[in-house]
């Protein structure tokens, strides 16, 4: 493509606003998991909402497609420009400011390019909590979090990204601006249009701003590492914890014995905690005031679970450093999988009541169809999100094995989840990697509605073509 085709964008964005050399664009065209290498004529880096509008108008006039990109930390290729589509990447990394915080209204207004951890820190400076928390929070950006409807560690108590949104600002395919940045919790003025953009992966508009709900800072915690007995009923344990702690459970994480062993192997030594024959749980209660006896509540509940034979052992964190050590183990599991040769990640959503049945049925089918494969499963099972991962066998090439699983046994796992009322995408989204699954499993009427919305807002199909649809 002639470089002069990019001159209008250079004029609009100024110095550093257009990256077109291969070395400059490389980080933006390789998906986070290294499963897809995309292609783009250039990466555009606007600094304001007005500049986003201008590049969208220019792209339409010059015949380019657009792929919005936040931190490029997604797992399903949703922010990767496809070869042959002539798609420009529009990165929001320079549109990354905190606009305002209202401590009395418990809200914050941010640019969509703001890094999640920076938004969390800004809230914390005012004694407030932004509860969205992910492993990639140090590099993912709010616009991407909204585009994929991110979940993370505290969905059980605070909900998905969708549940945290009060207002959205988005640039549409024609360059016009949709603005609904009010910080109202009650606002019944008809169809809630802003929610169309949450989970739409940049196919309906480029989110440029967001108003988010905040909570009082949760400065007091009780955290336990729990070794489970074989056959421990996860749904009953989760429900019992919620009832007996006044629903103060913020996280309820399952960790399988295999997942823990990967971390131990990577670190080259004992971890100080163990999985029981039924795996392990990492449980945390939190509150904004010291007067709530969190440790007492958690201990009483754990004692009851031990008496019932569900728990082999439990360790209550005695310091903040010990609490962080527990969480470091949980957050190191993906790195442990990578060190062991990688994994194929199946992101399963289930009703909590169906977790045990799913693990039994899916495990039996995998043992029958791929007996050589080891599992590493863990996740936010308090809200029904299970990361069900197949470790790449020794000697196998990761990408080739990924394609083999995704074309074969993954469908068996997904069908078991669907039979139990679950789905094949809990928090990763659809992107380009799960597009065929949406077409295969979605209700036809739902697909028709999604297509109609897409055509209404983006009739020429310029926004993130190839993602989802």
TrEMBL record:
<dbReference type="InterPro" id="IPR016167">
    <property type="entry name" value="FAD-bd_PCMH_sub1"/>
</dbReference>
<dbReference type="InterPro" id="IPR006094">
    <property type="entry name" value="Oxid_FAD_bind_N"/>
</dbReference>
<keyword id="KW-0285">Flavoprotein</keyword>
<comment type="similarity">
    <text>Belongs to the FAD-binding oxidoreductase/transferase type 4 family.</text>
</comment>
<dbReference type="InterPro" id="IPR016171">
    <property type="entry name" value="Vanillyl_alc_oxidase_C-sub2"/>
</dbReference>
<dbReference type="InterPro" id="IPR016166">
    <property type="entry name" value="FAD-bd_PCMH"/>
</dbReference>
<dbReference type="InterPro" id="IPR036318">
    <property type="entry name" value="FAD-bd_PCMH-like_sf"/>
</dbReference>
<dbReference type="InterPro" id="IPR016164">
    <property type="entry name" value="FAD-linked_Oxase-like_C"/>
</dbReference>
<dbReference type="InterPro" id="IPR051264">
    <property type="entry name" value="FAD-oxidored/transferase_4"/>
</dbReference>
<dbReference type="Pfam" id="PF02913">
    <property type="entry name" value="FAD-oxidase_C"/>
</dbReference>
<dbReference type="InterPro" id="IPR016169">
    <property type="entry name" value="FAD-bd_PCMH_sub2"/>
</dbReference>
<dbReference type="InterPro" id="IPR004113">
    <property type="entry name" value="FAD-bd_oxidored_4_C"/>
</dbReference>
<feature type="domain" description="FAD-binding PCMH-type">
    <location>
        <begin position="36"/>
        <end position="217"/>
    </location>
</feature>
<keyword id="KW-0274">FAD</keyword>
<protein>
    <submittedName>
        <fullName>FAD-linked oxidoreductase</fullName>
    </submittedName>
</protein>
<dbReference type="Pfam" id="PF01565">
    <property type="entry name" value="FAD_binding_4"/>
</dbReference>
